[in-house]
Structures are given as C-alpha cells and as structure tokens.
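Subject: sequence -> structure tokens, single chain

Hey, anyone have a minute? Need the predicted structure for the following. Not urgent.
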Amino acid sequence: MNAIANFDGAEILNTFVSLLVAFVLGTAIGAERQYRQRTAGLRINALVALGASAFVDLGMRLMGNQGATQVLAYVASGVGFLGAGVIIKEGMNIRGLSTAATVWCSAVTGGFAGADRPAEALLLAGFVLAGNTVLRPLVRLIERAPIDESATEAVYEVRVAASSVRRDAIRDTMIERLEAASYPIQDVAENEREDDVEIVATLATSSATGKQLDAVVDSLASLDGVSHATWSSRTSD
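Reply:
Had a minute. Here:
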C-alpha cells in the first residue's frame, strides 16, 4: 500500500515542525488583530498561515523546491481573494486594508515555515507585529500634524453654474482665468441640468492655494450668466 510505503517518520516530524511554527506565528499575528477587534482575527490568521505552510510543505514533498515555488504562486493569488473579503467600503471610506495586508503576510509567514525556513518565518512575523503596533504612534503623530496645502497631492475641481445661453463664453472665460492664475486645466466637463449647465474644470496641478482659488471663483461668480461658483478638493487616487 502506498500509504504505508510513503510513511517516513523523519519527514512527518519535519512537517509537524513546519506546521507548528506556522500555527504559532499565525496565532501571534492574529492575536494582535483580535485584540483590536478586526474582521480577520486570531483564527483566520492562524489558519491562513497553517494552510500556506501545508501547501508549500506538500509541494516540497512531492516535487522538491520546484513544487514549492509553483504552490507559492497559487497561495499568493488565493490569499489575495481571501484578503479582498475583509475589505469594506462605506461611502467614501474604505476599511480593512491593513487587516487584508496582515492576512497576506500571515500566508507568507506560513510559506516560510512550510519551506523549512523557521528563522525567516519568525523574522517576518516580528516585522508584521511591529508594523501593526510600533508604527501606530507614528501614524497618529503624522495624522495630527498640520496640513501644508502646498505639499499635499490632491485633485482640485472648480464648478460653475452657468446659463445655457452663455455657457460657451463662460467656459472660455473660466479656462482663461484659471490658466492666468497658473492653474492649467486637465479636463473640462459639462453637466446639463434643468435650469442651467454645470461646468466642471479639473485642475492638472497637484497642489493649490485656497486663497488664490477663492479669488478666481469670486471673479467667476461675478460674470453675467453665472448663478454659482465654487471649488473643492479631494485626495488623489
């Protein structure tokens, strides 16, 4: 029987050590996520690391290093789909990206363990935990720092509500005044509405000054046929 013929105590012990290392390190990574009440907590990270280790170990048992390499490629893509499941979009906000990245790193940790690299697995797990704990104060410090508008990368839009009769003249004047203020335009769109036309100019520059844009918008608002003019900004993709 093949099951009896393939029984190798040394190989089974090696597999046991690989799975144990993956399980312990995945549990450590997951414990931090569980403590912070994240979607993918202790069990998920432990099982992801364990599964990745088992797949890589099986690949090595069957085809050596080549088999482990092939399995790793499938593990990486498979865990990518799993990580996408913990990402939640709520309006303009996206949650779960750090948890998804942690699950991905748990899989790599398991991969190291399955490839008989326990030291590397331990090293990676340590860096993952450091990224989720030690870097948190630094993130809070950066978020609390005053924002320098000239240094931020953002998308700026100038919106003008114009009468349908004077739409062309207003659009041309809008472009001229923005370019005169050193704000080249990336795109101009028009949205037809019941009573007027909304002209939206997207600026090509990645930074702008609020006072300068206020001055341009005020000058556009005074044009004949313009009922409203404003500008807005949003973070770039």
